[in-house]
Specification:
The chain is built from three helices and five strands, in the order ββββαβαα. It is α+β, with helices and mostly antiparallel strands.
């Protein structure tokens, strides 16, 4: 399989991996504006038939690239992305704890979002 195309559907809060015309994986996220701008990944999902092909890692890498282009932090609430950060300290660093707390508060205030 060739590398999937990664698309950002900001309105839907989806970073999608597309291969052969189908969505094979995605990161569901929201944008936090305060106390500073951050992309907040909540879930990483790879379709079962496409697991083990590096799709989740490609999505995480692109999430950080996107945040860099937008001069935004990444405040991960997603277990996969949090582990990815730990494994790739040269490409990503954890967000300030205050930002993570603010992201958790936003998520609690929007219970139907995810």
């Amino acid at each position: 399989m060739s590398d999937p195309e990664i698309r950002d559907d900001r309105a839907a809060g989806l970073l999608e991996a597309v291969s052969g015309g189908e969505v094979v994986g995605r990161i569901e996220y929201f944008v936090l504006e305060s106390p500073e701008r951050a992309l907040v990944p909540v879930h990483t999902i790879v379709e079962p038939a496409h697991e083990g092909k590096g799709i989740a890692g490609s999505l995480a890498r692109e999430l950080f690239a996107l945040a860099g282009r937008e001069h935004s932090a990444v405040a991960s609430l997603c277990p996969y992305v949090t582990k990815w950060i730990e494994r790739h300290p040269d490409e990503a660093s954890p967000a300030d704890q205050d930002l993570v707390v603010a992201a958790k508060e936003w998520l609690r205030a929007h219970p139907g979002r995810f």
